[in-house]
Amino acid sequence: MSNAVMNTYGRLNVAFERGDGAWLIDDKGNRYLDALAGIGVVALGHTHPAVTKTIADQSNQLLHTSNLYQIPAQIELADRLTALSGMDNAFLANSGAEANECAIKICRLYGRQKGIDQPTIIVADAAFHGRTLATLTASGSRKVQAGFEPLVNGFIRAPFNDAAAIESMSKNKNIVAIMVEPVQGEGGIQVPDEGYLAELRRICDEHDWFLLLDEIQSGNGRTGSYFNYQQSNILPDLVTTAKGLGNGIPIGVCLARGKAADVFKPGNHGSTFGGNPFACAVGNTVVKTIVDEHLPARAAVLGTRMLEGFRSRLASRNNVKDIRGIGLMIGIELDSPCGELVQSALDKGLLINVTADSVIRLLPPLIISDEEADQIVDIVSELIEAI
Ligand code: PLP
C-alpha cells in the first residue's frame, strides 16, 4: 500500500466503490449495510436522487464565485435555516470545526466589546468540537490535544450534564459563553437529563453569556427534531451544524441570534470556499428533503424501535453496561474496550463505529427501512452475544 497519504487514520482494509441508500458496495461487489453513514453525514443515504440531480444541475451551471458577490443559493440556505431554527443569521463554512471557530470568534469578540480582556468559554468534559487548535482545545479528550501544546487560552472545563457545576463558576468575570453538544457524540452518545439545556439557558440569561450549542452531529433531523435543542423549548444564541447538512458535500454553518447575530462586521471573518453556490445548492436540497419527507419524526420512530430491539435482545447480558440514545444517535456501552467489533461487524456486512473505547456508536441514515433497522439490531446483538 502507498505511504503517500499522511498517517492520521487507522483504516479498515476495505474500499467502497458505490453507494445505494443505506448500502455500500465494495470493489469486489460485497454489500454492506451502513449503520454509520460516514460518521453521521449521509443522512439521506448514498446517491439520493434529489442530491445527485442538484449536484449534476449545479455543476453544469456554476460552482464558485467568491463572497465578494451576491450568492442567491447562500441567501436561500440562510433563509431556510434561520426559519427552521429560530435564529437570525448564518455564516456558511466548509466543515464542523470551521463552524465552531466562527461561533468561538463571535463569543470572544462579544466579550471584548463588553470590555473583557480574557474572554473565556465554559466547555464540557468528554466534548468533541473538532481538530483545529481552538476546537481541539475546546474538546475534552486528551487524546486529541496531547502533543499540540501550547493549547489556546480562554477555555475552562465543567462536567457534562451538571448545570450546578457551571453555575458555581459564575463568579469568574471572564466567562462569555457556555459551549456544549446537546447530545455528546464522540464522547459516547451521552444524552443529558431533561431540563439540562433549559438550565443552561437560564444561567446564560442571568449572566449575559452566550449559549453555544454544537449540533454538528445531533442536528439535521438525527435526534427527532431538526435541531436537538428544539425538544427543550429553548433558543441558543449560537448553534453550529455540518455533517448531515451536505449529505457528503463539505459544508458547515454557524447560526446566530439576537446580540450574537450583530457581533461581526465586514472583515471580522471569512472563508474562500464557505457558502459557495455549489455547496449551498446541495445544502438547500438536503434541508428541503429532510423537512419535506418528515425525516426528523422518522428518526424518532426508528430510534425508539432500535432501542427497544436492543433492550429486549440484550437485557440479560452482563457485559452490556448501558443502551442509550435519542433518535438515530444510538450508543451501546460495554463493560470493556470493544474496538475489535468494528472489524467483526465488517465481516458480517455491517458498518459500525466504536467511540470512547467501549461504546458501539450507530448513526445510520435517516432513510433506513424498518427491516434495515431490525437487521442492524440483529447483527450488533449477535456480535455482543458472541463476546
Ligand atoms: N463537533 C461535533 C459534535 C462533531 O461530532 C464533529 C465531528 O465529528 C465536529 C464538531 C468536527 O466536525 P468536522 O470534522 O466537520 O470538522
Keywords:
single chain; 387 residues; alpha/beta; Aspartate Aminotransferase, domain 1; Aspartate Aminotransferase, domain 2; seven-stranded mixed β-sheet; globular; binds pyridoxal-5'-phosphate
Largest sheet: 7 strands, mixed
Which small compounds were modeled alongside the protein? pyridoxal-5'-phosphate
CATH-defined topology of the largest domain: Aspartate Aminotransferase, domain 2
Please count the helical segments: 12
Tell me the distance between the termini. Answer: 32 Å
For the residues shown, what is the average pLDDT? 98
Helix content: 25-40%
- What is the H-and-E element order? EEEHHHEHEHHEHEHEEEHHEEHEEEH
Query: What is the domain total for the residues?
Result: 2
Class based on secondary structure composition and strand pairing? alpha/beta
Q: Assign the CATH class of the largest domain.
A: Alpha Beta
Overall 3D shape: globular
Extract low-pLDDT stretches: none
